[in-house]
Amino acid sequence: MQLLMEQMLNGLAMGSIYAIVTLGLALVYGVMRILHVAHASIYTIGAYVGVYLFQTTGSLAVAFLGSMVFCAVLGVLIERLVYFPLLSFPPYVPLIASIAVMLTLEEVCRLVAGPQILTFAARLPFPEVDIAGVHLSSTLIAIYVITAVILLLLWYLLNRTELGLAMRATSQDLPISGAQGINSHCIVSLTFVIGSAIAAIGGILVGIYYNQVYPTMGAVPAYKTLALIVVGGMGSVSGAVIAAMLLGLAETLLIGYLNVPFPRDALAFVAMIAVLVWRSEGLLGSR
Amino acid sequence: MSSYAITILTLIVIQAIVVCGLNVIVGYAGQISLGHAAFFGIGAYSAALLSTQAGLSFWSALPIVLLICALCGLLLGLPSLRLKQDFLAITTIGINFIVQAVFLYVPFFGGALGISGIPRIRFLGEALKGPSFLYLCLACLALVMAICWFFTRIFAGLACFALREEESAATSMGISPVRFKLLAFMLGTVFAGLGGSLYAHYMRFVSAEDFSFPLSITFMSMLVLGGMGTLLGPLVGALILGALPEVFRPLAEFRILFYGLMLLLMIRFQPGGILGESSLVRKRIFPMFLRRRS
Prior knowledge:
The structure holds 2 protein chains of 2 kinds. Chain A contains 11 helices and 2 strands; from the N terminus they run H-H-H-H-E-E-H-H-H-H-H-H-H.
């Protein structure tokens, strides 16, 4: 029973991290209809910048902020230089471009920081909690709290502010929202800023959680999060978050607790195909 | 030619065969597929199992391999009837991951150890290796390209083009999307199976790692780079992307970076591919030759 609880809490942490990474992807898909595979390499770079800043300054706050700013700039650069000029082409063109960006960024990480695994020995300033014999480390608490804060802020931004209204309008129809007086290109860039900054947080959290940062850490999340935005309903942010949480729990419980002999990384895709067969608009999508 | 160059060329030709298959699905019928390495793997694994377990030769196993691949293509082509564009792209990625997982986790497929001891292909009593194997691959490539050319000339090919351009209009003209999409998928996976079979007998060892998702990306990049929907595009793309890592070898550790940057620049500035419509080659270089002739 205790093991089950601990596995569930770990699964929830996994799900939170998936959710953080998937958020940016869902936002970008919403406004641009582009499968932004390179998002996962932004997350890797976020972790690297975080490690570097933490080792040089020793301050986690600087690491988080610096990494978020760096990734936001990188995200906007990718959008302006690569995606925006390719918007009028069939969707596979930006997709291949995105994969090329990911390949390039991954190599940059390997060349600058070396192929070895870096350790990220930081302690997040959160308390440790023991409830009924179940131990919650400060990292787990930090992941829960930070995810919850990000989700709340994003929900507030999207649903309660004028900017959020503009973002939702842009994601419904880019040209029409432009005709309504919204600076839609600016909104698209802003989406990349928000998504990439959140990915940076995700990268740092994963780095601390596993205490390792390496060049290919984005490879598996890159495609798993694609499956997640399908399961959640293309472009639906809340759907993607729920799908991510469910996947984190399912992965940890099925493989970690029940020891089902099934490859962990294929589970997301099996779930995706099941969803596509029975409910092709996704968990929270609309037809 | 040195045996090193022959090895590289043989692999390029095998990849060109597979990319021709991808071209039928993506370029002719307009159905995006990012899981083509799975079919390449299915072909390679069936050839490996038939030759090591059942003791069949390459030639007697080939029809069975192609049949298996056609059936898998039919089965996995079914999603394309319901899904469009991005959904189909992600689904085919998923198919690639699942097929690879099956190879890796089902003991029948050798698990993590793969299948080794695949015999060489024998032709007229002689084992093919080095240059003679390259000639076999080239013959297969010529056959595949001839079939592709023929396909663009017959009704089925024209029907696929029509479905690619505007599905609802084509359907209203009486073209069955079910029949022709599945036909394109089957043809494409059969070519992938042929490539996989050659690959298995060339490497004489297959493992699940050889057919992972990055290989699908490579196939797709070759096709996009060469020019989607053109006859020679797959060949040009496979040649360039297959040779680039070797050309960049002096750059040592920077070569994958250059590979990625090249791909990025190509797709950014020539999204239709080198031989595609409105590409630089077609606009500037082809007319030069045409003018000279007239």
